[in-house]
């Protein structure tokens, strides 16, 4: 991967590169999915694009098709884990709870959730 697509200080770039261990759920040329280390549901998976974008709006502006692929991958994960029901969260901005500034979809599934 070229320098322009990786941020050396970014935790999720390092996970994608295999420099930090993770429990892989799915991988293809563009996407990587892995279990959240601090799960908030029975199944809590993070889906990230391999290319670095800071947040979901940056990704949507640069590559909306890839954002669509992330949503469909979330659906796949939930189809396998919990008859297709899931919660999909993109925390965006520090004050909304974003702590890693490499866009990631939280896929929460595997159990009935409160409204
Ligand atoms: P955010 O708060 O940015 O929306 O979500 C970051 C998520 O990354 C959190 O749910 C947190 O538990 C998870 N996380 C932070 N560090 C690691 C790590 O090293 N490995 C894994 N698998 N998840 C991490
Ligand atoms: Zn990154």
Automatic annotation (TrEMBL):
Full protein name: Histidine triad nucleotide-binding protein
A Pfam family the protein falls into: DcpS_C
Coiled coil segments of this chain: none
InterPro entries: Histidine_triad_HIT, HIT-like, HIT-like_sf
Motif annotated as Histidine triad motif, chain positions: 102-106
Sequence intervals crossing the membrane: none
GO molecular function, one term: catalytic activity
PROSITE patterns (UniProt xref): HIT_2 (PS51084)
Gene source species: Bifidobacterium xylocopae
Residues in HIT domain copies: 11-115
Active site as annotated: 104
